[in-house]
Amino acid sequence: MTKTESFTSRWALLIAALGMAVGTGNIWRFPRILATNGGGAFLIPLLIFLFLWAIPLLMVEIAMGRHTRKGVVGAFGRLMGRQATWMGAFVGWCTMAITFYYSVVAGWCVKYLIASATGELSGVDGTAYWEGVQTTVWQPVFFHFVAMAACALILYRGVVAGIERASKVLIPALFVLLMVAAVRALTLPAAEGAGGPMAGLEFLFNPNWSDLLNYEIWLQALTQSAWSTGAGWGLMVTYAVYSHKKDDIVGTAMTIGLGNNSASMLAALAIIPTVFAVLPLAEAQSVLRDSGPASTGLSFIWVPTLFGEIPGGQFFMTLFFLALVVAAFSSMIAMLELGVRIFMDFGMTRQRAVTSVAVGSVVLGIPSAVNLSFFSNQDAVWGIGLMVSGFFFAVAVGKFGAARFREELIEPADNDFRVGRWFDFAIRVLVPLQFTVLITWWLYQTATSAEAWWNPFGVFTLGTCLFQWGVVLLIFYLANNRMAAATLGDEPATG
């Protein structure tokens, strides 16, 4: 058996983990979700759920990966018993299914970066330009391939020469870019009739306390926290395989969560004051809430239009899309590595695994590249599927024993902070409770929507989610023993 590579230091693991968490969702999704859900009020439940959902699950993932030294499929099989390997396979599939269309988004980012740097985006109508890109089918497909190839080349070089070196460049660069963009946004002059950057800050940090009585804001905050931090995706299981035995688990999980939220706030500071500096108050709020086709409204439709109206707009716009590309690539590297690690556990070499995962992802991502309805469907199905993935991690710890998991897998690490029994309560009670509430709310929303809930081929229906989940779960359940034999061999379970 070949020796598994390891990150060279705790800092290397930490910065790679930050790259995993900080992605396009911080820049592309967060400002719009915040604006749609009460502005400043949204930040309060977001912070609460960071400690009630994201950080506990990140600790679970790090401990599982470091303890089992397996990707997410083998980690579930070894921790819970061979009969539970299918659960790890479902977690892995959810993340890989997202990767197929996430690379399409990364491709859009690359296209817009080139267009902004060359001046092609200057003075354009954002909607017309977006429609022009999408009607020329070759462009989304080509840039989807470019994004996938770039990340695959990094992974091909291995953990240290590939993931670690790329993360050490990408993540500091991303935070610098976001800070420069935020400072520029806050110093913009207000256009005639506009509220100015200070109106954006008031919108961002002056909560309407009555909004906290709206249950939907709390549910959206939980969703954003879960998806944005990468908690429950299996990504930190993968990276923890390459960690050292005494690496800090608690501090790493907290740094990922707080660092991710910091990146989101920097992105909000770069975008929201800009919108308020250019547009009148009512129009600014409307623009921030505009999701656009496939949730592209703010970043890919309004940013070119708005930045064209501010001093130095082309430079600022190029800076924005460069940050978006860096964020997309840092997260996509982690998502692809999840699949690579699974294939390596099945006996493949890294080079063959990278090639297989990259080629398969390019092919399976083409439908999302050429059809926005398919893109939106996959985003809905597997995005919600991540809630199931997070619940599976709580189930795994419950079977192992929450207190035993903490005492044997987390506390022996050189942690800067003690975990305490709150971890046991969070994993045994709070995570399952949050999952139940979120899924129940989603079931109600989809069942009462205008679209026929039972339609297995609808875009956002309950039927399409249950149909696709059911097919995947059935396949993995039937293949459970083969997957267990391939990834675990004769190894006994530790649970």
Give an overview of the whole structure.
It is a single chain. The protein has 495 residues and is mainly alpha-helical. The protein has a single domain (10-488), classed as Amino acid/polyamine transporter I (Up-down Bundle). The protein has 21 helices and no strands. The two termini are 24 Å apart. The mean pLDDT is 91.
Ends distance: 24 Å
Measured by DSSP, the beta-strand proportion falls in: under 5%
- CATH homologous superfamily? Amino acid/polyamine transporter I
User: Which regions contain 5 or more consecutive residues with pLDDT less than 50?
Assistant: none
- Number of β-strand runs: 0
By CATH, the topology is Amino acid/polyamine transporter I
Helix count, DSSP H or I runs of 4 or more residues: 21
Main beta-sheet strand count, sense and barrel state: none
State the shape.
Answer: globular
Q: Give the overall average pLDDT.
A: 91
Radius of gyration: 22 Å
| CATH architectural designation | Up-down Bundle
Summarize the structure.
With 495 residues, the protein is mostly helical. The protein has 21 helices and no strands.
Element layout with pairings:
Blueprint: H1 10-21, H2 24-36, H3 43-68, H4 72-80, H5 85-117, H6 126-135, H7 138-156, H8 159-186, H9 197-205, H10 215-229, H11 235-240, H12 250-278, H13 281-288, H14 297-307, H15 313-345, H16 350-370, H17 372-400, H18 402-410, H19 422-447, H20 462-478, H21 480-488
